[in-house]
Specification:
- It is built from nine helices and 16 strands.
- It is an alpha/beta fold and 393 residues long.
- It has two domains: 64 residues, no CATH class; 265 residues, TIM Barrel, CATH 3.20.20.370.
- Helix 3 packs parallel to helix 4 and helix 8 packs across helix 9.
- It is globular.
Length: 393
């Protein structure tokens, strides 16, 4: 007992305290040595503690070795090279890179979709300006304003074409001609026919500019009917400015240009009669070449099997369409409806068909009624230029 300690307290054992201090010091030294050894082993070990890289959401850093350029993909599939591949309309850019340690990192970034939804949306005329011509598609001549291909290569057949869906379903084009020959018939055609019916303007008609503007504002595609010589000419006379097989090329071209200058905004030329003229290769050659040079299509009404229009169009390389059915050779409602049913059968068999008729009251009424029923059966009605040979899918 320590007699000098305060009352009720005893001094601690000095030897016991010294032993505990030495034990604590030894433990600390061992812990430090163990931690140092673990750190050294980790740094010198050839195997990384983490074998998977983090998810790459940012572009590849400069020090990462890139083994592939960006490729477009939405639902990517693996190519033989291990890179993501897909089409140009998909919604993401995929970049796959390989890091120095052999791991593959995939990063994604948005990609703008490409390709039109509506056929010709970027090259056809704005509907709000449909009644006005494109000045780039006009050549000023002594005959008047003639269609021409623009300096950039834009053609009237493309610019004035009616837009359509581009779907591969059954398609029908119906062309109603004689617009301008009768004021009441012209008014009825423009007013009563659905806008997806093509209208053919007779070059010998009246008030053509006014009817053209009304028809275009309504949404119709239009073509121009040029009078051509039939076999029984002049007993059967198509009208002033008829193209004649025995006339010189210069004379026929002058009449063609006079007809072309009557209106603007049309996609092509359609024959009015012309069985003899279209069977004569010497007469047809300069006319077809001029039509093609001006960026127009040629629509053959199918009235004669001897027509050379298709042969010339193929040889020259211009858009060409051939009518399958004349729907109103008999001007009677039931007969017209029967012809329209025949037109639908051809379209379902071939994927498309073209019918032609005139602006008779019976024809207009029958076409308007039948067209609405055909749409309900899944038929798409298109401007006739959509069915020209070079535009067929």
């Amino acid at each position: 007992m320590d007699l000098h300690a305060p009352l009720g307290q005893e001094r601690k054992d000095k030897n016991r305290s010294s032993g505990r201090l030495r034990l604590s010091t030894v433990s600390s030294v061992i812990a430090v040595l163990a931690l140092t050894g673990l750190s050294a082993w980790t740094a010198l070990s050839p195997v990384a503690l983490r074998t998977e890289p983090p998810i790459g959401l940012t572009p590849t850093p400069p020090e990462t070795k890139t083994v592939a350029e960006a490729e477009t993909a939405g639902d990517p599939t693996e190519s033989p090279t291990g890179l993501a591949t897909s089409g140009p309309n998909d919604g993401a850019v995929i970049r796959r890179t390989k890091t120095a340690d052999g791991n593959t990192v995939t990063t994604f970034s948005p990609n703008a979709r490409q390709g039109p939804v509506v056929i010709g949306a970027s090259s056809t005329q704005d509907p709000r300006l449909a009644g006005q011509p494109n000045e780039d598609l006009i050549e000023l001549t002594d005959a008047g304003e003639l269609p021409t291909v623009s300096a950039s290569g834009l053609r009237p057949v493309d610019f004035y074409a009616r837009r359509w869906s581009g779907a591969r379903g059954t398609r029908i084009a119906i062309v109603i001609g004689g617009i301008g020959l009768s004021q009441t018939g012209s008014q009825k055609a423009v007013t009563d026919l659905p806008e997806d019916i093509t209208l053919a303007f007779a070059a010998t008609g009246n008030s053509l500019q006014r009817w053209m503007q009304e028809a275009r504002r309504k949404g119709h595609e239009i073509v121009l009917q040029v009078p051509m010589e039939p076999f029984d000419y002049p007993a059967m006379d198509p009208g002033r400015g008829t193209l004649l097989a025995e006339k010189a090329a210069a004379s026929n071209l002058a009449n063609l240009h006079q007809a072309m200058a009557q209106i603007t905004n049309y996609t092509g030329i359609m024959n009015y009669m012309g069985a003899r003229f279209m069977a004569d290769d010497k007469a047809m050659d300069p006319v077809m070449r001029d039509i093609g040079k001006r960026g127009l299509m040629f629509l053959d009404d199918g009235s004669t099997a001897r027509s050379l229009s298709g042969d010339f169009a193929k040889a020259i390389g211009i858009p060409h369409a051939y009518a399958d059915v004349m729907i109103d050779a008999q001007v009677d409602r039931q007969a017209i409806l029967a012809k329209l049913d025949e037109l639908e059968r051809i379209a379902r068999r071939n994927g498309q068909a073209i019918g032609v008729g005139a602006a008779f009251d019976e024809t207009i009424a029958a076409v308007a009624e039948w067209r609405n029923e055909a749409v309900a059966r899944g038929i798409e009605f298109v401007g006739v230029s959509a069915l020209a040979n070079e535009n067929r899918p």
